[in-house]
């Protein structure tokens, strides 16, 4: 899948170190915001390798690397998981634009449009969902820009650094895309 700015390809084991590099100077809160409780701080290559062995290669989890079309440089990741084949629903998780200089350049919007094409056209989903912490305003704006709507707010869903975080569940239906 590709468009003018980025293209998506399935993430491979040799790409995992790049994710570690993006997270070297990040806090435990940053890791929680991006990955939820899936990984422990600090993020290690072993954790990512175990994730691939236990989930990506066994379950229906599709992790894509986001590549700049012009250079093939890997600049982020995005995944589809929690696939409900009966109801034709998938969930976007662990969406990360690695370097700050790649944020705010419509790359996030382009990546979302590409993953939605995969979900709605290739996987034939009727609905795609995601969760986002309520203070992540830039992500919420990006999601709304491509058509996601807020469905619900779960208050105090996650305790992080002595504070409780709220989470919006958002979704988009195939006809809305």
From TrEMBL:
PROSITE patterns assigned to the protein according to its UniProt record, in alphabetical order: GNAT (PS51186)
Matches recorded under SUPFAM superfamilies: Acyl-CoA N-acyltransferases (Nat)
Superkingdom, taxonomy of origin: Bacteria
GO MF assignments: acyltransferase activity, transferring groups other than amino-acyl groups
Name of the featured protein: IS4 family transposase ISBce8
Protein's organism: Clostridium felsineum
């Amino acid at each position: 899948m590709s468009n003018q700015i980025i293209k998506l390809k399935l993430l491979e084991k040799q790409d995992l170190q790049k994710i570690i590099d993006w997270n070297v100077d990040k806090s435990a809160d940053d890791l929680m915001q991006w990955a939820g409780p899936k990984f422990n701080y600090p993020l290690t290559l072993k954790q990512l390798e175990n994730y691939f062995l236990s989930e990506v290669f066994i379950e229906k989890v599709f992790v894509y690397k986001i590549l700049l079309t012009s250079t093939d440089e890997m600049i982020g990741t995005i995944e589809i998981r929690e696939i409900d084949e009966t109801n034709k629903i998938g969930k976007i998780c662990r969406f990360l634009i690695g370097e700050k200089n790649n944020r705010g350049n419509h790359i996030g919007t382009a990546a979302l449009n590409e993953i939605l094409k995969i979900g709605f056209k290739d996987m034939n989903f009727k609905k795609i969902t995601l969760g986002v912490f309520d203070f992540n305003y830039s992500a919420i704006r990006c999601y709304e820009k491509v058509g996601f709507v807020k469905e619900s707010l779960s208050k105090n869903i996650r305790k992080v650094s002595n504070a409780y975080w709220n989470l919006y569940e958002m979704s988009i239906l195939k006809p809305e895309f």
